[in-house]
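Running low. Any example?
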Amino acid sequence: MNMTAFFPRLSLLALACVAVSASAAEPIVVKIGHVAALSGPAAHLGRDNENGVRMAIEELNAKGVQIGGRTAKFELLAEDDGGDPKQGTAAAQKLVDSKVNGVVGHLNSGTAIPAARIYSEAGIPQIAPSVTNPRYTRQGFKTTFRMVADDAQLGGTLGRYAVQTLKAKTVAVIDDRTAYGQGVATEFEKAAKAAGATIVKREFTNDKATDFTGILTGIKAAKPDVIFYGGMDAVGGPMLRQMKQLGINSKFMGGDGVCTAELPKLASGQVPDNQVICAIAGGVEGAQKPVMDKFKADFKKKFGAEVQIYSPYTYDATKVMAEAMVKAGSADPAKYLPVLAKISYPGVTGTIAFDEKGDIKNGALTLYTFKGGKREELAVVR
């Protein structure tokens, strides 16, 4: 249809302006990918992480965030990697093919590390909310960011705590042979030895094991003051139950993988008060506590479930990614990536800023124990 025939006084330039205005008024679709284990033994942690992203996206859409003068409509593209590296890289490629604007994930070090190369080659920013293996941010990729302290800090802190605070002289170490489990166990062992402890046993299992009788019987004979397990709660819980059955009273220590609200249930209630000492990469203190408490209350009201561990970090990762887009005036990864690398954002989990490797600056750790079947905070350390 020739519009000038109907509106002879309307110039072609005016028509062009009308077209541009109409285009500018259209929402811009921003696709946020999220990958975690939504099947398998860590599925409860994967759902927790995904819900954090979902909560952030719904808030961003309700707010009507503007990017480059256009209202942004955020969409969640969620993938399940099952905690498996091959499945993780397949999920990453699927998100790249879907032209996501950014990725929050993965849950596990073992899946996030190989996936990082795929995102890097596509130029898509990846913010990992719960990955602690140091290698993740040491591959030289400019697209890779981490929300929490790494295993060198977490494992090292727990190793020193075992000797200096728990007064452990002998230690046994078990890991599940995953990138995460081996990494945190190795850092714990190095720090405990450096602090003066003797490693009496170093054993391994796998992340799907259920019977630890052989390993624990050998460890029982060595009578360690502390048993450290590098792995997830789905294995740590049954291990604790079998320790109780075998009459092993050693302190049980672990990283964030075992430091979940589900641990007592997975141990069939066999978690004596103060026996377990664990640490989560992250934590808030002081004026930040009421902010986190509100998030947890809102989360529970929305999803009918307690925060497991890292949903506040996936929530913040999504929000900080959106903030970088707003500041850059674009959701194009190439345009907002430099802004993301230099951002300082006040999140639920604290101030979010990244160093030159993509690691979180001044990352915190929270030490916990369990009493009456409930996780109880001991201290926040940096």
